[in-house]
Amino acid sequence: MLQVKNIVKYYGNNCAVNDLSFEVKDGEIFGLLGENGAGKTTTFRIILGLLDADRGSVSLNGETIDYSKTDKIGYVTEERSLLTKMTVKEQLIYYGVLKGLTEKQVLDKMDDLLKEFDVLDYKNRKIKELSKGNQQKIQFISAVLNDPILLILDEPFTGLDPINVKMFKDYIRKLQKKGCSIIFSSHQMEHIEEFCEKMVILVKGKSILEGYIKDIKKDYRKHNIFIKGDINKEDFKNIKGVIEVSKKDDEYVVKIEDYDVVPKVFKKISSKEINKFVVEEATLNEIFIAKVGELK
Questions:
Q1: Quick one: which of 19, 122, 152, 236 is 20 to 30 A from 54 by CA?
Q2: Taking CA 292 as the corner, what is the angle to CA 1 and CA 23, rounded to the nearest 5 degrees?
Q3: What are the pLDDT digits (tens) for 88-110?
């Protein structure tokens, strides 16, 4: 289990991480969210031991993270960190040995992973000769060669088509089942909703929202009603609690303040011919925009 306790990090007078705490249990996928510059990368670097926090602590399975512990951590950076003049085989051996594996151990694992990600034919090709998507696969493979107990994924699906995204997702689920703790960062909220159980949203290094995603969505007061039928925008005028009405294709999307507004909306249109009336929770994307926007 990873435990981050009250970490603080300053760059000069700028507080990049402000009293941040969270924990990621074995086999749990945790979302660390925020706009660019929110403090996510600094947090990752502190967890990896690349930066020292000014205050607070980070531990993995109860022990302070040092170079002996980082051998069991995998990190997929948002920017590719591959040595492009090396072949795929040379690259994986290089990173594997840096993680404490022997060359033989790397070679024993390498072909299976390359095959799983459909890049076995590129083993002796130089990194620079690969497409961006295949380079991303090699970067991911290099991060999991050491069977990490903690995996940090920063925008892992960048440059991937839907088929390859599924390939990554399936392997991430395999790691989760093995008990790997995973921190997932992405601006694509649908991936966070699909993968993560808990999350933190950072703004200027400080947590503004944290907890289990199911509870955050339940507690968030704004909902959407999707309605199809013989109606128009004027039907929703003067209903207290209706925030916005928009039309998408042949259905209306009615944003409401809370669930108590649902009966009011239904009563107002009950005399109309209605083919669909579905109440949906706010999406994580809507919650993120609203919470971050409150502070601007």
A1: 152
A2: 5
A3: 999 999 999 999 999 999 999 99
